[in-house]
């Protein structure tokens, strides 16, 4: 099942929790030196959900704590190695959607600032967006 472009545009206009510039050391990559030495990873996460209940009540219990999402990202990035950034991003997204039913969609960006390329870069990486309808419940 897919959503139309119009559905996606409407979703991204809604409320969201925003986590930017999370930095962790991990051991992801295909090259042996990436697995042995590790490297820094930069993560951004957007989690779409209705923030009106928390805005009206001013209670943390009516929203999701940023630290809960931060902990998921930290556990994935500092956890078991993955070959591809796509896999790291997918695990973060699926964990957020599985753990928090209030989240209707999540965007995860994973960047590597230290990549052997011929030229200056801020980082190279991947960005994925996952909507709740795409999550397979196990």
From TrEMBL:
Keyword Lyase: yes
Reactions catalysed according to its record: 7,8-dihydroneopterin = 6-hydroxymethyl-7,8-dihydropterin + glycolaldehyde
Keyword set, alphabetical order: Folate biosynthesis, Lyase
GO CC terms, sorted: cytoplasm
GO biological-process terms attached to the record: folic acid biosynthetic process; tetrahydrofolate biosynthetic process
Domain Dihydroneopterin aldolase/epimerase: 17-130
GO terms assigned for molecular function: dihydroneopterin aldolase activity
Pathway named in the protein's UniProt entry: Cofactor biosynthesis; tetrahydrofolate biosynthesis; 2-amino-4-hydroxy-6-hydroxymethyl-7,8-dihydropteridine diphosphate from 7,8-dihydroneopterin triphosphate: step 3/4
Enzyme kind, highest EC tier: lyase
SMART domains: FolB
EC identifiers of the protein: 4.1.2.25
Sequence similarity: Belongs to the DHNA family.
Function: Catalyzes the conversion of 7,8-dihydroneopterin to 6-hydroxymethyl-7,8-dihydropterin.
Subunit structure as annotated in this protein's UniProt entry: Homooctamer. Forms a hollow cylinder assembled from two ring-shaped tetramers.
PANTHER family on file: DIHYDRONEOPTERIN ALDOLASE 1-RELATED
Protein name as catalogued: 7,8-dihydroneopterin aldolase
Originating organism: Sesamum alatum
